[in-house]
Specification:
Residues 3-118 form the Response regulatory domain. This is Response regulator transcription factor. Residues 147-212 form the HTH luxR-type domain. By secondary structure, this protein is an alpha/beta fold. The protein has 10 helices and 5 strands; from the N terminus they run βαβαβαβαβαααααα. Strands 2-1-3-4-5 form a 5-stranded parallel β-sheet, with helices on both faces. α3 runs parallel beside α4 and α7 packs across α10. The protein starts with a strand and ends with a helix.
Length: 213
């Protein structure tokens, strides 16, 4: 069973998310939080596999809550957004969120995203990843870009895979572009995430965009 904590301040939205999650036989909702502080406290107490985290919440916003949950290694975090709060989403990814979803995501896609993140893959729909990257690529950077020397530890192939992640490509897409087996792509992704000390492929995509590779 995948144990999920739902953090959402709007009770009607939270109830809808819980209803969807409980419809799946392999997912258990272990708690509901109405604000960021409660989300962190419940994550400490319940140790869920995953926190489904809204961005804009009272007392403690979703970005700050994500940062605490990830820093304490309490759970993986899947962030919910309306895309009206792009910079909050960007902050959540920097804070270590494993991925993000639009609030109007179809029920089946929500369930699959939860399963994917719970498997440790951190793979969110490439189309959504590309949209986020495009949103930030069109704006001037508001924070200092990363130091290019962080890539010195990567092999040439790992750099190529990182560049593909920066475009929001899936493992299958990367395999086709670089003419390698999909399993090999997964290995390269895992290795580069480890070397760069990143929590998810979405963080890797953001880094690739910042460095312009």
């Amino acid at each position: 069973m995948i144990r999920v904590l739902v953090a959402e301040d709007q009770s009607a939205v939270r109830a809808g998310l819980v209803l969807i999650l409980r419809s799946a036989p392999d997912i258990e909702v272990v708690g509901e939080a109405a604000d960021g502080e409660q989300a962190v406290a419940m994550a400490r107490e319940l140790r869920p596999d995953l926190v489904l985290m809204d961005v804009q919440m009272p007392r403690l916003d979703g970005v700050s809550a994500t940062r605490q949950v990830v820093a304490e290694r309490l759970a993986d975090v899947l962030v919910l957004t309306t895309f009206d709060l792009d910079e909050y989403v960007f902050g959540a990814l920097r804070a270590g969120a494993a991925g993000f979803l639009l609030k109007n995501t179809e029920a089946k896609d929500l369930l699959e995203a939860v399963r994917t993140v719970a498997r440790g893959e951190g793979l969110i729909a490439p189309a959504v990843t590309r949209r986020l990257i495009a949103e930030f690529g069109a704006k001037p950077a508001r924070q200092p870009t990363a130091d290019p020397s962080v890539l010195d530890c990567l092999t040439r192939r790992e750099r190529e895979v990182l560049a593909c992640l920066g475009e929001g490509l899936s493992n299958a897409d990367i395999a086709t572009r670089l003419d390698m087996a999909e399993a090999t792509v997964k290995t390269h992704v895992s290795r580069l995430l480890g070397k760069l000390e990143l929590r998810s492929r979405v963080q890797a995509a953001v880094l690739a965009q910042e460095l312009g590779i």
